[in-house]
Design brief:
By secondary structure, this protein is α+β, with helices and mostly antiparallel strands. The chain has a single domain, classed as OB fold (Dihydrolipoamide Acetyltransferase, E2P), CATH 2.40.50. The protein is about 35% helix and about 20% strand. It contains 6 helices and 8 strands. Strands 1-2-3-6-5 form a 5-stranded mixed barrel. About 10% of the residues have low confidence.
Length: about 170
């Protein structure tokens, strides 16, 4: 009987230990060398060569182009502020690279999903892209919030007239 009680107590102790979420265990920590735009980072430390700089495209968002003023500059500045000086964590979905060779990822800083924060504050649009759908619902809700609150590109006084994709088609 005493062995059963000890075994039960051990199982209870193990069960009560905080467990890392599966997503957290698949995140890698990297240093951001530079913010290129409101949706693209240059990072150090991905892959086999730890000193190699790679481009990372944030998944499921489309930020205004830098030439799409004032929204492009604002998106870049906000992402720079969110990233700060500390490392960020990258989390991947189904597709790891885009057609330009950039790494595709969700970026986390202090348990905040930066992709979502940019959308929620009206600095970027949610754009779901197959096959990467891990956080689509979160991002869609963030965009609904931004629209309702008139945040950033949704500001009724000075709305963004063209989506970033429309802007690129028209001006490139």
């Amino acid at each position: 009987m005493q062995k059963i009680v000890i075994l039960f107590c051990l199982l209870l102790l193990v069960a009560c230990q905080p467990q890392k979420k599966a997503e957290e265990s698949t995140r890698i920590q990297i240093k951001v060398a530079q913010v290129v735009s409101g949706q693209t980072l240059e990072v150090v430390g991905i892959g086999d060569q730890p000193s190699l700089i790679s481009q990372v495209r944030l998944l499921s968002i489309d930020a205004p182009d830098l030439q799409q003023r004032p929204w492009g500059d604002a998106a870049k500045e906000r992402l720079e502020a969110l990233v700060g000086e500390q490392p960020v964590k990258l989390e991947f979905d189904v597709q790891m690279k885009d057609k330009f060779g950039r790494t595709l990822a969700y970026a986390w800083k202090d348990e905040v999903l930066l992709n979502e924060q940019l959308v929620k504050e009206g600095y970027a649009l949610f754009v779901g892209r197959s096959p990467n759908h891990k956080y689509d619902l979160r991002l869609e809700r963030a965009q609904q919030w931004a629209r309702l609150m008139g945040q950033g590109i949704w500001n009724p006084e000075k709305p963004m007239r063209l989506t970033p994709a429309e802007f690129r088609r028209q001006y490139r």
